[in-house]
Amino acid sequence: VAEGRYIAGLGNWYSENEIPVGGYINLAPGPRPGTVLIGYNRRPRPRREWVRLASVENGRVHFSLEKRGIGCDYDDLLILGTDQLAAMEAIYRSGETQNRTLASILTEIMPSLSEGGPQNAVHAKTIYSAVNMLRRITPGAVFAELMRQQAFQAVGDQYWKFNTKKWQS
């Protein structure tokens, strides 16, 4: 456990156990101060579930719904994946992405995230999870930006739409 009570460096553990973004993990105090026991609820057999998958097209991130085998419990509003790990990693690490405004990232991802959703809207938790694939940022910053820009419209129950007609870049 790092200073500030953060746990970091679990990338290999997530990969080895095939825990998706949005997968539930269990944390318990370890035997010594500053240690934590980590686990998850493994399913006997992975179930095929609908998952939003990120892909990179012409340097931009796009999401589509596809069936994938999921071997653990997860939050269906947070779960995301990708088959293009190297391309997503390059986008994440690029200076261009890190220097972009949060609003411009939201305008890039919202249209494809909302496809097939109720009223072509997307839940705030899904938006937050997708933004975090591109830039590590707090939920509060994402939700504040949704409130600040009139192109993002709340439609109830924490669902949001992107109105391109109200967007001014």
Give a short account of the largest sheet: 3 strands, mixed
* Radius of gyration, in angstroms, nearest whole number: 17 Å
- The low-pLDDT segments are none
Strand order of the largest sheet: 4-3-5
N-to-C terminal Cα separation, in Å? Answer: 41 Å
Share of residues in strands: 25-35%
Count of domain modules: 1
Mean pLDDT: 92
Anisotropy-based shape: globular
DSSP summary: helix tally: 6
Spell out the helices and strands N to C: HEEEEEHHHEHHEE
* Secondary structure tally: strands: 8
Which structural class do the helices and strands define?
alpha+beta
Helical fraction = 25-40%
Q: Describe it for me?
A:
This protein is an alpha+beta fold. It has one domain. It contains 6 helices and 8 strands. It has helices spanning 11-16, 85-93, 95-99, 102-114, 124-134, 139-148, and strands at 26-29, 36-39, 42-57, 60-72, 80-82, 122-123, 152-156, 159-162. The protein has a 3-stranded mixed beta sheet with strand order 4-3-5. Strand 1 (26-29) and strand 2 (36-39) form a beta hairpin. Helix 4 (102-114) packs across helix 5. It is globular. The model has no long low-confidence stretch (mean pLDDT 92).
Name the features.
globular, 169 residues, three-stranded antiparallel sheet, alpha+beta, three-stranded mixed sheet
